[in-house]
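re the bet — no i am not wrong, look at it urself. input seq straight from the record:
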Amino acid sequence: MSQLSSIDIEKNCLRGLYRNPQIFSEIDGFVKHTDFTSQIHQVIYSIVKQVLLENKSLDQVLIAQRIDDLKIRPPENVPIWDYLDNIFTAKIGEKAAVESFWELSKLRTLREICANTKKMFDFVKAGKPAIVGQIIFS
């Protein structure tokens, strides 16, 4: 299901939220940290969300320190400072940021549909079609 995730979209979301924190109230209702497939992106999003909920200004150093405290490393053990710098320094507008979050949400929904479809297929294949409804609503 690698085509149902996009590291580039995830980075655009993080970049967009960092550079346009005013969009948080717009995206908070439909975005979950689990929408991000990369563990480091889940952590970055969770920390950014926490900082915003604390009504603090987004500060790359603060975010990096919190991630560093968790002992979580980006891919290829790139220093967290460099990883965040790579994400946060590029520009992205407010509209493009919100659109990136919608795309991220669509990918999550597609992953969920695929997972549920596979569960239904496996149940039907096993000769248990009467309980397919339980899979859909579980």
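see?? Residues 94-125 form the longest helix (32 residues). told u. also The CA atoms of residues 116 and 136 lie 7 Å apart. so pay up
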